[in-house]
Amino acid sequence: MFVNSHIASGYLAGKIAKDDSKWIVLWMVAATIQDIDGLWSDTVAGHHSILHTPIFWIAVCGIVWCIGNFRKIQGLEMGAMIVLAATMLHLFTDWITARTVGIQWFYPFSDTNYWVYPISPEKGNIPIWEMVVPPYINFYFENKILSYGEVGLNILALGWFGKTYLDNHEK
Ligand SMILES: [Zn+2]
Asked: pTM of the prediction?
């Protein structure tokens, strides 16, 4: 999934959870941050690091939640839960929209990559920035269900954002 779509899905999830706007910002960041591993990866197909595995985030969020619980810092507990949920959302959507690399749900216990639609890892042997130009972008949007879904997600998020903005600014 593209970065903008992860931001959009984080926004929508925060809205659906009826969270305050400061938490929605966290939803958006935490639903997107995993793709930072693209910065130190040579190829699209190779960009899934430990940040794209559930166990890493379960461990990190578990520790933060425990600190929050122990020290009675409610914001920390809430933040840890949102980050975990947003991370799972990222991995779940990457799993559904996998085109060149799947999700290792059971890493480090198993290296098996999981995906929904068949993937073509050889098409992902390109630098990350080439994702947004042909031929990769054409290949990415070949699957019409995924394409309409991803575009629709962005439109929905923009629409909801626009409506919220107008609601907040009318007298
Ligand atoms: Zn990702």
From this structure: 0.94
